[in-house]
Write a structure and sequence with these properties.
- Helices cover about 50% and strands about 10% of the residues.
- It starts with about 25 loop residues before the first helix and ends with a strand.
- It has helices spanning about 25-40, 45-55, 60-70, 80-90, 95-105, 110-125, 125-140, 145-160, 165-175, 180-205, 290-305, 330-345, and strands spanning about 280-290, 310-320, 320-330, 350-354.
- A four-stranded antiparallel β-sheet has the order 2-3-1-4, with helices on both faces.
- It has about 350 residues and is an alpha+beta fold.
- The longest helix is centred in the middle third of the chain and has 27 residues, at about 180-205.
- It has two domains: about 5-265, Serine Threonine Protein Phosphatase 5, Tetratricopeptide repeat, CATH 1.25.40; about 280-354, Alpha-Beta Plaits.
- It is flat and about 55 Å long.
């Protein structure tokens, strides 16, 4: 076991984007009014809109109040209250709330409590959770030691763009036997297929009234994004957040005493495939009830994922829905390479054949 995989600092970001149940009527309008106020920097108004809905048990309102207390928007930073709101929202099926709950528990040095949530988030495809769960599986301290599974989780985290994951994979290469690494890569492919199937199912049921944009969930006021919905729910909405860099390994000391490793900034970013002419594949970025929503999403994602600007945008009408696509690509693999970068930046993306 290497000490370099065991020591590091960590701070959490909330870029994992998730959908939740979309109730109709006044509750939706009030939550959306709060989101609009939040986007304009009127955090007090946002909190006034969400508080009664949260008291009535609205999962999105609970999640949004958790974001406010975590980020200190309109209220003092209070991680305990943020945890409580995330916990309540997660209990109602809000997956991003569950993601944030596990990550924040870990940040607060409550790692044993955090691990079941991180495991579920990792299996859903949450890259930061995959990174932490991979370290735990490698060390065997907070969960059973399983090197092939550790290698698979770290591979997926690296593919999603978690910076320290590539360096951790290199360290794992020095200790995990080749046959177990090969098994881990096969597991990583299985996990990727499961994640893509879940995204496809989510996008096929995308809420076109919300346009795939963050209409009921919030994060940092400057960030927007798209996500997926919980499996039992009939529709989906989107939410986004952004703060500080992800953790680099499972520390053995309290967070306040740990040190950030110097390898964190050295991980290479995956190269996007070159645009081609006459390709039979595109990357689908969302479905919208209005073309303006697709245009705003293109502008938003292009600012986050620089290679996206080298592709043609397509606004494909399908009945009342406008589908936003990018391309063309020569193969599904090429489209998937760009999709990985978009998902790492907080977007949703699936390859589509013409």
């Amino acid at each position: 076991m290497t000490s370099s995989l065991r020591r590091s600092a960590f701070s959490l970001i909330t870029i994992g984007l998730i959908g939740t149940c979309l109730p109709a009527g006044t509750a939706f309008a009030d939550v959306k009014a709060g989101v609009d106020a939040w986007a304009q920097g009127d955090y007090a108004k946002a909190l006034r809109e969400w508080t009664p809905l949260a008291q009535a048990g609205d999962a999105d309102a609970l999640f949004n109040l958790g974001q406010a207390y975590k980020l200190g928007r309109g209220v003092p930073v209070d991680m305990n209250r943020a945890l409580d709101y995330y916990r309540q929202a997660a209990a109602k099926g809000h997956m991003q709330a569950e993601d944030n709950y596990g990550l924040l528990l870990f940040q607060q040095n409550r790692r044993v409590e955090a691990m079941p949530y991180l495991e579920r988030s990792a299996r859903r495809g949450e890259a930061r959770a995959q990174y932490l769960y991979g370290i735990a599986l490698f060390n065997g301290d907070l969960t059973g030691k399983d090197w092939p599974a550790a290698y698979a989780m770290m591979t997926r985290a690296s593919q999603a763009g978690v910076p320290q994951a590539a360096a951790s994979l290199q360290q794992m290469n020095q200790h995990i036997p080749e046959d177990q690494r090969i098994k881990g890569l096969s597991l990583a492919e299985d996990i990727a297929r499961q994640e893509n199937a879940a995204r496809l199912a989510a996008m096929s049921g995308m809420d076109v009234e919300s346009g795939g944009a963050g209409n009921r969930g919030v994060g940092d006021a400057s960030v927007g994004g798209i996500g997926t919905k919980p499996a039992p729910k009939p529709t989906s909405v989107r939410s986004a957040a952004n703060a500080s860099p992800p953790p680099s390994s499972m520390p053995k000391t309290p967070a306040a005493k740990a040190k950030t490793p110097t390898i964190a900034s050295t991980a290479p970013q995956p190269a996007a495939p070159k645009a081609t002419t006459g390709g039979k594949w595109r990357a689908q970025l969302g479905a919208f009830s209005e073309a303006g929503g697709a245009q705003r999403m293109w502008k938003n994602l292009s600012a986050k994922v620089k290679p996206l600007a080298s592709y043609q945008s397509y606004m494909v009408k399908a009945g009342a829905v406008t589908r936003l696509q990018a391309g063309p690509f020569a193969s599904r693999d090429d489209a998937e390479k760009l999709c990985r970068q978009i998902r790492a930046a907080g977007g949703d993306c699936i390859p589509k054949s013409l």
